[in-house]
Write a structure and sequence with these properties.
The chain is an alpha/beta fold and 262 residues long. It has two domains: 137 residues, UDP N-Acetylglucosamine Acyltransferase, domain 1, CATH 2.160.10; 53 residues, Udp N-acetylglucosamine O-acyltransferase, C-terminal domain (Udp N-acetylglucosamine O-acyltransferase, Domain 2). It has an eleven-stranded mixed beta sheet with strand order 1-4-7-10-13-16-19-22-25-27-28. A hairpin with a 4-residue loop joins strand 27 and strand 28. Helix 2 packs across helix 3.
Length: 262
Amino acid sequence: MELVSGIHPTAVVHAATRVGDGVVIGPYAVIEEDVVIGDDTVVGAHAMVGAHTRLGRGNQIHHGAVVGSTPQDLKFAGDVTYTIVGDRNTFREYCTVNRATSIDEETRLGSDNLLMAYSHVGHNCRLGNNVVLANSANLAGHVRVDDHAIIGGLTGVHQFVHVGAHAMIGGCSRVTQDVPTYALAAGSEPRIVGANAVGLSRRGFSQQEIREIRRAYKTIFRSKLTVAAALERLDAQEPHPIVLPLIDFIRKSSRGMMRAGR
């Protein structure tokens, strides 16, 4: 069926909703109060956009997906909290995104993210741009996922974990500690196995940059040095600029790093 711009007569749309140009709202969709829907966004059949959600341009919300519902948090007291979504995100069938818990807080997604079917983004999470959550990947509350990270299917991520930019986590993982920038993590329970070299190459990193990242990973995770000593060694070597985000990520980690594999 070809989608035509407009609101299907069976959709339930709150009177205060602000709808941009070219928006499609499908059969039996529900749009709650205080929602903004940006231009050229499609809300599919039986999908729901929860109260106080802000959607940018060109988002695709597929059948049965729920964006901006109340948080699954016993501390939630009914306050006005938000879900802020950028542009061109894709929410596949039955994925869920919860808004934040406490007054004036927000759950925030950037742009060009793909949330596959049955994935979940908990309250107060922050996703960057070009993030992929594969089928049934689940983020607990307050998780941060940086740009271009990929989280494999059936993976659960503990609350307050930070996943760095360009990291890739294999499927069926149980992630309880931070996963640093550029990391490739796999196994059960998951361990860092090195740099995400294939992903970095696909995103246009030069071979020299990838070699520098691999060298830094070897120093941090494969040497017998403590992490602190390894970072001091890298500092003394005046590391390549491409390595600086990795060093900064590790120094700022609040949950500690996922361990390296043997």
